[in-house]
Amino acid sequence: MSGHDSKYFSTTKKGEIPELKEELNSQYKDKRKDAVKKVIAAMTVGKDVSSLFTDVVNCMQTENLELKKLVYLYLINYAKSQPDLAILAVNTFVKDSQDPNPLIRALAVRTMGCIRVDKITEYLCDPLQRCLKDDDPYVRKTAAICVAKLYDINAELVEDRGFLEALKDLISDNNPMVVANAVAALAEIQESSVRPIFEITSHTLTKLLTALNECTEWGQVFILDSLSRYKATDARDAENIVERVTPRLQHANCAVVLSAVKIILLQMELITSTDVVRNLCKKMAPPLVTLLSAEPEIQYVALRNINLIVQKRPTILAHEIKVFFCKYNDPIYVKMEKLEIMIKLASDRNIDQVLLEFKEYATEVDVDFVRKAVRAIGRCAIKLDRAAERCISVLLELIKIKVNYVVQEAIIVIKDIFRRYPNTYESIIATLCESLDNLDEPEAKASMIWIIGEYAERIDNADELLESFLETFPEEPALVQLQLLTATVKLFLKKPTEGPQQMIQAVLNNATVETDNPDLRDRAYIYWRLLSTDPEAAKDVVLAEKPVISDDSNQLDPSLLDELLANISTLSSVYHKPPEAFVSRVKAAPRADDEEFADAGETGYSESPSQGVDGSSPSSSAGTSSHVPAKQPAAAAPAAPAPIPDLLGDLMGLDNALVPVDEPTATSGPPLPVVLPSTTGQGLQISAQLVRRDGQIFYDISFENGTQGVLDGFMIQFNKNTFGLAAGGPLQVPPLQPGDSSRTLLPMVFSQNVSTGAPNSLLQVAVKNNQQPVWYFNDKGSLHVFFGEDGKMERTSFLEAWKSLPDDNEFSKEFPNSVINSIDATIEHLSASNVFFIAKRRNANMDVLYLSAKIPRGIPFLIELTAAVGVPGAKCAVKTPNREYVPLFFEAMEPLIK
Amino acid sequence: MISQFFVLSQRGDHIVFRDYRGEVPKGSAEIFFRKVKFWNEDEAEEAPPVFNIDGVNYIHVKVAGLYFVVTTMVNISPSLLLELLQRIARVTKDYLGVLNEDSLRKNFILVYELLDEVIDFGYPQTTSTEALKSYIFNEPIMVDAGRMPPLGPAAMFMQGSKRMPGTAVTKSVVANEPGGKKREEIFVDIIEKISVTFSSSGYILTSEIDGTIQMKSYLSGNPEIRLALNEDLGIGRSGSSTHDYRSSSGGGSVVLDDCNFHESVQLDSFDIDRTLHLIPPDGEFPVMNYRMTQEFKPPFRVTALIEEAGPSRAEVLLKIRADFSANVTANTITVQMPVPSYTMRASFELEAGAVGQTTDFKEGSRRLEWNLKKIVGGSEHTLRAKLTFSQESHGNLTKEAGPVNMNFTIPMYNASKLQVRYLQISKKSKTYNPYRWVRYVTQANSYVARL
């Protein structure tokens, strides 16, 4: 071949498709090959070349492997959209699968498995059967994977045609590549089935262990991962396995090493001889350490795993703490993990060395890393009582450098040290108080206040110190307010003199009357009653001895730890979460059989919303057909549970049950946009919109029953969304007679269930009733319902905020259709929508307005609106720290300025 | 298993995109790119190599400025995927000679052909260039390598040193030379990355060598090779105390903490005479990786001083001494030293007659930077700098400045003293005498002197 492939990208002139068509049908081989390459080039950049299907398929019958591969690549891509035409290719496939050249046989069976078209699948069975018994190992290993492909398309077919047995036979194959692929395919099939399909017996165990030594590194990982499911019968059995697996620790491939470590750790649980265990620990240490010489990406995975291993078996790496010292050029994600492991391995023996390192890290540049280093010193103090004093002196040294965030972080950890060792280190309080004025982080402030309250009797001017904080009480964050309240009460109980008495009155008054934070108010009332009824009892309660704390931060719960250790070397061990927390493809529970599913498809279980809701469903090119074949043979499925609630739970990823319907309330208002037309809803029409009333967000929703029967039992559920909006109460809809309609305001709340990813205003809703299937629809709320009443900014703080935000965070957009007829009316109109006016100025003939708005989680928008009165067109510029919300903001803003 | 594999440019353009299972929703490449680009906007932090967004797991490495990414929906081994991504990059490089956006785009059909053999239905099949040769039919199209920064540690041989046949490293393993016949040659590179931390008083706090014996064979007919290392090479520290290595340093023998080998290596006689037997597969691969914490002589001694010189001034003195023999020359040396954040200006004073040295004060990152083109063994260089502060210092200058970090490359030098005693190629005929290149190089990994 000559020339550059990239030239295929450059044909953009008109009539490209007819031109290609002509070339594809050329009588010259080379020209045809070039044409197919052009088609593939077009395909990879996303152009639609499906109309050339027949012409490309015609090029398939060739002896030229290069050309054949290209045609197959095309087929995989377009067969789904042209299922009828794809049948044309079947004959060639079947013929190719019997070709004398093993590469062609393998290619045919590999490609056919990738074409997920039912009609083709049927033709796949015979060639696959032959290829599984082919003489050539390359064909057999390809066929083994093909069984897994077929199982994914049509599990029943695989079981009926006996492919599972054929696959199991391949475990005894003499070629290790074939064994490895058979193991991988069986493991995948087992993963999606509830029946035992692939069980490792002592017989298969021997075969797998033999194949392990010979196959490729990737095959070794497949086999090791399957072996990890094997339950050894006794200690001898376990020792035997470990002995065969240990040499894998020497492998240059980190995946092999980690998978081997997993098996050894699992089997160690059964081994009773302490000598053997000790020896194994010794053998595992060097390879684990060597993982840290790999690329930083692999180091990260290794460190996350080592973190788990040292929690269970600290002895393995107890002497290796030096290798976890941070290197100058480690990426930050590696440094953070190393720090965590250093804390776990810190002991009385190595603490001096470790402290020296931490101290050094605490003066580095990266703020997050520095904070974590300071915190690490505190955690070591709590963990090792004999080293506590040394840790504290290091902290004091750091405080003296007077780097603000270091000081604040140090104060936070010192509070914990005081909790751990009460009445031991108060002498340093004086030093801490020197930094009092510089505290601006809530957690540091709260910690300092706690210290003052706790040791009020030893600090001469405790009342003055607290009083200085009290001045700003109403503006403080809740965290600080709560600590101030408690500290003042402590002070009063310890020094019931006049000054503190006045202070306590002021605080209690502030915390009960002038706050809208229920936690603060409740705590204040409790103190108030305690103090007024029985001051002695108050003393017993407030000044009670506190339980001693230990360093359990970042320590995992033992049962979770065991589960994660069983998942060493997997994603689970990197996230430190059990697999079910992030893998959505769970074992196919007995599902409803084909018919019901097909039925649901027809009756309006429309696929687009469901795929939108369920992130794990196939990409949109995979139509309903991929849903139709059930993973389970119908016969094996026991009575299917009512699918609807399950489905809802799955789709929404929420575990709270549906909100039941209570008594009805009637509401009226302007007509709402239709979100579920009656044609889709089998007669039920739903209209809805997010609205804001009196500072609260409601879902204004109306139901219209166009069916022949009564509809009742309405429930509603919202999928995770950007703002974590969820129903704040039950949906109140009365039973709807035919022809009836009902409208209600559903209060909405902000839950923790926030979807990640780029913010959007999409609201995915599921509604059900007792008579119909679940309806899913997408509603698009405008950002302006989230604009809070607290969005008004002071002029000065607006200016400061505007200046402090980098210019990168400024965005602007023209609203060509907006006309401002009166400045005052616009200001009034905008402030009704919680976009608050701050200032205005004139620039030539233009008016410039400065406005502010705020959405939940305290995200502000600083707005500059430029327009000429009466002239269409306005320019809106916005600055915000959270630039990802900007598109949504403009979307919401435009209709407000009409 | 693997759902998708893709390669993105630094700007987020798709260069290669292959979906193996059709289970990940559309737009994954964009979602990935946005996440990586804006991982933590204010902190300029790098995204970790493994993360999950909306149920899709993204695993990536950065090679030659490109993002190599796989996605998966299941709980599989991320180290497998990371290794695989590195291996795909290496195989592609073997085929294309150079790995960059241009070469990938020019050869996209070959790349897709490779990907189909490397991964089937999301399962890695083979990543050995040698094995792949029987299944790959497209011929690579060479791109002009002259301008391209080459990939991998062997690239350091390209820098200025005329002894090395520069084009060899960017030569495709499979493509035929324009002249028709391939040149018979084999490269064995002993590449060592050293990490040393000096305490403020000049003691060595930690030291470590990460080494690789890398091989790249252009030999036809896959002859067997014998590679002999130091006869007295020891493996595994006897005890496990962190200070243990000091006791073994007197003996003069090289003791590795740990090592591992490529799967083609036969270790039958390794325990007896420290010889490795192998039939090298085509392509570049590490024969052996090793790690050593045994005490060694660091190639450079670094001394740094910072002293107050008046109320809002300070003086810095940096000194480096090359502790290696005079026939060895280090090149591209960079010394960096962070200074207090309130430093406004820095003026430098180089030693008299300094050649090929530049200095800079990086205002954005508050760092002094000192670049030296080369340093000959045995020589010593100093730099003085005067700093002007915008405020009075807190009297704690050593805590607010440093540590000094050094970067360098020293060709034909290895810190560990691990040697290839001989490289024997089993002869096909008497006249068969392929070129053998055994090259040593030492690079700084994390070379730090604290203040």
From TrEMBL, chain A:
Region spans: Disordered: 597-642
Swiss-Prot/TrEMBL keywords: Cytoplasmic vesicle, Golgi apparatus, Membrane, Protein transport, Transport
InterPro entries: AP_beta, AP_complex_bsu_1_2_4, ARM-like, ARM-type_fold, B-adaptin_app_sub_C, Clathrin/coatomer_adapt-like_N, Clathrin_a/b/g-adaptin_app_Ig, Clathrin_app_Ig-like_sf
Family the UniProt entry places it in: Belongs to the adaptor complexes large subunit family.
Cellular compartment(s): Cytoplasmic vesicle, Clathrin-coated vesicle membrane; Golgi apparatus, trans-Golgi network
Lineage of producing organism: Eukaryota, Viridiplantae, Streptophyta, Embryophyta, Tracheophyta
Protein name in UniProt: Beta-adaptin-like protein
Gene3D superfamilies referenced in this protein's UniProt entry, alphabetically: 2.60.40.1150, Leucine-rich Repeat Variant, TATA-Binding Protein
Keyword check for Phosphoprotein: no
Quaternary structure annotation from Swiss-Prot or TrEMBL: Adaptor protein complexes are heterotetramers composed of two large adaptins (beta-type subunit and alpha-type or delta-type or epsilon-type or gamma-type subunit), a medium adaptin (mu-type subunit) and a small adaptin (sigma-type subunit).
UniProtKB/TrEMBL annotation, chain B:
GO CC aspect terms: clathrin adaptor complex; cytoplasmic vesicle; cytosol; trans-Golgi network
Signal peptide feature range: none
Gene3D superfamilies: 3.30.450.60, Mu homology domain, subdomain B
Ranges of residues in domain MHD: 183-450
Main location: membrane
Pfam families attached to this UniProt entry: Adap_comp_sub, Clat_adaptor_s
Keyword Transport set for record: yes
InterPro entries in alphabetical order: Adaptor_comp_med_subunit (IPR050431), AP2_Mu_C_sf (IPR036168), AP_mu_sigma_su (IPR022775), Clathrin_mu (IPR001392), Clathrin_mu_CS (IPR018240), Longin-like_dom_sf (IPR011012), MHD (IPR028565)
Subcellular location: Endomembrane system
GO BP annotation list: Golgi to lysosome transport; intracellular protein transport; protein targeting
Family stated for the protein in its record: Belongs to the adaptor complexes medium subunit family.
Protein name, per record: MHD domain-containing protein
Organism this protein belongs to: Brachypodium distachyon (Purple false brome)
